[in-house]
């Protein structure tokens, strides 16, 4: 049985908790002592953190503004001076005396990768003349998890893990994991930083000739060559092979077995390929058939003309043919992707899908052999690919180790289109193609913004993240479908009171441990502020797709507002809300007294969260970074993202909120949560009402209002949709024939007016039995008939 405090005690207790929390919040958001003086005394990181340094976004190269606050040795060890920014993309030369050591650049001047806040993450990088990263320093960002939650020193330690890497000599495989362990709670931010470091190094190296012997390291662009579309001749198979127009890779059984031995995997070594060592494992060929002379030779005139007509301007086509091991595999049948081959060019790569594929029966070039597989692929229109630059076809070979395990190794077929099939593009033609936006010419795009070119690199970072989190996406999808089924069949489920209560507890445990502490998918008012800010600036879905679990939860929450207000998220999917409710359940079992807040005071205190949200929203209109700092009123980062591993003031603030929740259930949700307020405002557009009520609810019955855990039911009996968390406690009472006064009265009335049974009799009459008594006939007892006739 609940024990409630008196109204006067309730008001005093609530005011005490509110005053304490406001004091703690003001201490948390206040800058530490000496912060201003530290920044003036050379604290460059403090100056840049909230965008106080550098030039405005879109105002051109920003490198110079940051170099003013950096010592040469900090970013390029051994350098005593750094020259002014020059060239496009902008770089600055690092010197030791008069000797040039390398280049210094800003990642956001090269690539346009942005963080979870939708703002750039600026890292200054030092790059030697042979392509080695010798320094990298974070100088500006707007990431909320780093601004408030994770120490910046940990992020800098992650960046330092890239120092010493040489991506010019050893290019990273697209989609490969970073060389440094990801910090829990900042996965998206750090993957964005790693991606921008990798892509910017390759872009600068390619543009300035870094690591390429015999080339002058200058910003002047080399001559630009394009495919010669005016060629009309054809060549034989042998001539194409000899010139390099057809690339060839032959692997023997010995080559493949040796490659698997080098992997060191015992299971793969124990299952060698059958056959003699010199037997052919695969004979693989490839060619760029969008080049007219090569295409007409291999496809024939009619097939080439058909291909030319269906290619988009600037789009290319590649032919792959082979005998032996299948380069197609069977993956494309199930998933539509040819997972055994991949085209890689510089830092870009892409795979073909079944939509890009056309099966060919044979080749038309004179003297060409017969092939088991011949495939014609068109390069995807969203891929970055230059036909005149070298590229490679990477073949993945798989080996079955056991029923559930496979081993993989890769081989490369290098391809470089011979110059005989290209021509030098005249300057006027270069300008025309640049103005027309012709695809497939990165060399011409060098004269454009390098950031835009970097942004088009494939595969997109968010796609890599989604693929890596396939299992998590499946789990959260199942959980959401389960919750939808609960809501749609709530009238049947709540009748089973014990089952429902256990199910809700289990779901809240899943929300806290899996969604919160494991998947780190705690939604925040910072997400709302970031979204509204991006709508006013440079909205892009890519920013919000960086975290698939958070994105899915936001989509589900937005859809649920139409059906169930904010209750679907606040009552079921919020990890901190689940933590409050679970700890309150424990408190009740320990007989901790529960404070019943008077209705009037409860209504007024509930308005605080709307006031907090409006203040944060107003600040975000002025400066998003400042609003993110004040958003520390949310204890989510401390309790969920960082699991209470944080400076003691933040831990105390979160602990005080949870302590208050032991006495007032969901104290933070009801009175202080700006995210709940942000969700409640659009929830006024709700078009469905799923919670059923009787006419007697509120007048005279007050059972649901008294029993509601968050006091979301007014004394008049109506449910306040802005405060309801869809716990369905009122619906359990609605269907409970032993507790609901309306049902009790209704059932009693039915019993009083129920038709009497046949043996009920007249009131006051004693009836022994109304069953008929049948007595057997006695012939001797029957009267004798006397005849009058003689």
Question: Layout of SSEs?
Answer:
Layout: H1 7-29, H2 35-40, H3 44-49, H4 63-67, H5 72-75, E1 81-82, E2 92-96, E3 99-106, H6 107-110, E4 122-128, E5 133-140, H7 144-149, H8 152-160, H9 187-208, E6 225-227, H10 237-243, E7 246-252, H11 253-263, H12 266-269, E8 280-288, H13 292-299, H14 301-310, E9 317-324, H15 331-335, E10 341-345, E11 348-350, E12 357-359, E13 373-378, E14 391-400, E15 406-415, E16 422-424, H16 427-436, H17 442-445, H18 450-455, H19 461-468, H20 470-488, H21 490-493, H22 497-518, H23 525-536, H24 541-544, H25 548-564, H26 567-573, H27 575-589, H28 599-606, H29 608-622, H30 624-630, H31 636-641, H32 648-663, H33 667-671, H34 674-680, H35 703-707, H36 729-734, H37 741-752
Antiparallel strand pairs: 1-2, 2-3, 3-4, 4-5, 6-16, 7-8, 8-9, 9-13, 10-11, 10-14, 12-13, 14-15
Helix pairs in contact: 1-32, 13-14, 20-25, 22-27, 23-29, 25-26, 27-32, 29-30, 29-34
Structure description:
This protein has about 800 residues and is α+β, with helices and mostly antiparallel strands. It is built from 37 helices and 16 strands. Strands 1-2-3-4-5 form a five-stranded antiparallel sheet. The chain has a five-stranded antiparallel sheet with strand order 7-8-9-13-12. α27 crosses α32 (about 650-665), α29 (about 610-620) packs antiparallel against α30 (about 625-630) and α29 (about 610-620) packs across α34. The radius of gyration is 37 Å and the shape is globular.
